[in-house]
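Q: Got a minute? One more chain.
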Amino acid sequence: MADAAYGLWPLVILNTGLFVLSLADRCVVGIEADRQRCRDYVERSTGLVTALSPIIGYDRAATIAVEATDTGDSVYNLVLAKGWLTRHDLDTLLRPETMIQPACHG
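A: Always. Here it is, folded:
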């Protein structure tokens, strides 16, 4: 019985490969990201406080995350309103391109 099951593996692998190709052709090819919507998601993410924590401190970052969640306002606007960072600093720190680069804050 076990030998018969092992004999089915090539068929299973073939069908899985065909399924993946079909899925790619029917569902993935041609998809384009809505860049503005993606940027909006990033700008509204409370995860942005992670990038600010080394600069403004954990307690302030946590406060901003909670307030952003409660009010629906952006991390950017809340930090700016509290005067903890300048617009220039926020623009630099919260650029997604900047956040994906390793950096040491000391």
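A: Residues 1-31 form one domain.
Q: Perfect, thanks.
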